[in-house]
Design a protein that fits this description.
The complex is a heterodimer. By secondary structure, chain A is mainly α. Chain A has a domain of about 140 residues. In chain A, about 65% of the residues lie in helices and about 0% in strands. In chain A, helix 4 runs antiparallel to helix 5, helix 7 packs parallel to helix 9 and helix 8 packs antiparallel against helix 9. Chain B is mostly helical. Chain B has one domain. Chain B is about 70% helix and about 0% strand. In chain B, helix 4 packs antiparallel against helix 5, helix 4 packs parallel to helix 6 and helix 5 runs antiparallel to helix 9. The radius of gyration of chain B is 24 Å and the shape is globular. Classes of the chains: A mainly alpha, B mainly alpha. At the A-B interface, helix 5 and helix 9 of A face helix 4 of B.
Chain lengths: ~210, ~240
């Protein structure tokens, strides 16, 4: 099915499989995407990103309800990582380019390393699905960073700590509800600890805006 | 007719046996070949630990005078510890070094991000480069310690830095130097005492080469720690 698609790469494969539009079936979505106006494509992608974000905002504990997230895409994580890196970079007085670069690398490199770690420990994870989930779950930290940026003068250190702490717990809990089902049973703690470290690292940057 | 069926079942049995042999072989197949170390499967046997194992190994590093560590990891050296202990350390260095420099009155402070690449380079080069050098030297001198056991030993010795980093939050210079010296002594003793068993089989001069390498690298690590990350904060 996806062999017919001219852009048969994994990213588009994930998008074309996402079925939630106006009762179209998969073949119809396949055929129409090449001829449709650009606005349609953009709106469809944005809708898909928002749909996945709704899964992040309301963490679902049961794994079956998260099945829609298996249609991984990397647009969401890309937008979120750019937003986070820009927010943190703009707010620093010096070396904003280093901050931008470091956050970007930490996010993508960190997701990759966590996925490889889970695989090495015997988990049944698919690489891009896991990177996608980890990327989307950065959304609460993004919200915290933007909130702290705009209301900077009103927030003392302690209040920032609370906001960032809430965002961190939300992100971790969200991603755990997907990731933990894919991990090896007896090595769950050491598979999950890197995720905890990853979100802690990203949240810590927000305290210092 | 009977023979036909018999033959078929014989062939089927043989085919089944072959395929099951193949499955067993594929499961046990160690990746061979020059570029085997680039595959994920090459490293899977080195992640065969659970959290209780990891905690036990970390606890072993805090009591350097009991040379128990190599017995703990014998046959099952793991790579999880070295990689993630160092990652934790990078986070802690960045967090605490920045916390330390917060000053409520000053207006234009910003986050010092340069600790992240510096810490990454320092920790990972020492945690993985030194075992590489050590293992090569030891192989050359005839010590029987595998490469991954050395990495495991070295990586876990970094866990001494975990409480030290947290304690480095305080601004008192004397206290910082004291705990740095304690950390240096602890991790060097840990490494040397655990290597002692293997090293005793060698002559005196060769032993000192290895001890010298170990001590030098630990010294440079701890000095770098103090002078770059937690240097004197002017009030």
């Amino acid at each position: 099915m996806t062999d017919n698609h001219p852009f048969g790469s994994g990213m588009f494969q994930g998008q074309a499989k996402f079925v939630d539009y106006a009762h179209m079936n998969q073949q119809e979505v396949q055929v129409n995407t090449l001829d449709e106006p650009v606005l349609d494509t953009l709106l469809r992608d944005i809708n898909m990103i928002l749909y996945k974000l709704s899964y992040v905002i309301i963490p679902r504990m049961k794994e079956t309800q998260g099945r829609k997230l298996r249609n991984w895409d990397l647009w969401g994580p890309l937008l979120l990582s750019l937003l986070l890196a820009m927010t943190l970079g703009i707010n620093s007085n010096q070396s904003s380019d280093t901050i931008f670069g470091t956050i970007f690398i930490i996010m993508w490199g960190g997701s990759a390393v966590i996925t490889v770690n889970a695989k090495l420990l015997g988990g049944q994870v698919s690489f891009f699905q896991s990177v996608c989930v980890l990327g989307y779950c950065v959304f609460p930290i993004n919200v915290a960073a933007v909130v702290i940026t705009f209301l900077q003068s009103y927030f003392g250190f302690f209040l920032r700590l609370i906001i960032v702490g809430v965002a961190f717990l939300w992100s971790t809990f969200s991603s755990l509800s997907f990731m933990s089902s894919m991990m090896n049973e007896e090595k769950k703690v050491i598979s999950v600890y890197p995720i905890f470290l990853f979100y802690m690292f990203l949240s810590w940057f927000c305290i210092f805006i | 007719m009977d023979f036909g069926i018999q033959n078929q079942t014989d062939e089927q049995q043989q085919a089944n046996k072959e395929s099951s042999n193949q499955n067993v072989n594929e499961g046990n197949k160690k990746q061979t070949g020059f570029c085997a170390f680039l595959t994920v499967e090459f490293y899977t046997p080195y992640f065969n630990v659970t959290e209780t194992d990891v905690i036990q190994r970390i606890q072993g590093t805090f009591l350097p005078l009991k040379p128990d560590f190599l017995n703990l990891i014998r046959g099952n050296p793991d790579l999880w510890g070295p990689i993630w202990i160092n990652a934790t350390l990078i986070f802690m260095i960045t967090a605490i070094a920045n916390l330390r420099q917060i000053d409520e009155e000053k207006e234009n402070q910003s986050f010092v991000i340069s600790y992240v690449p510096q810490a990454t380079a320092l920790l990972y080069i020492i945690a993985f480069g030194t075992p590489l050098v050590l293992a090569a030297v030891m192989k050359f001198l005839g010590v029987d310690l595998s490469f991954f056991q050395t990495i495991c030993l070295y990586g876990y010795s970094m866990s001494t830095l975990l409480p030290i980093t947290i304690l480095c939050y305080f601004q008192n210079e004397l206290f910082l130097w004291l705990i740095i010296v304690y950390g240096f002594a602890n991790s060097s003793l840990f490494l040397i005492i655990n290597l002692k068993e293997e090293l005793d089989k060698l002559q005196i001069q060769k032993k000192y080469i290895i001890i010298g390498i170990v001590v030098t690298m630990q010294l440079s690590l701890y000095l770098f720690y103090k002078l770059v990350f937690f240097s004197y904060v002017t009030e």
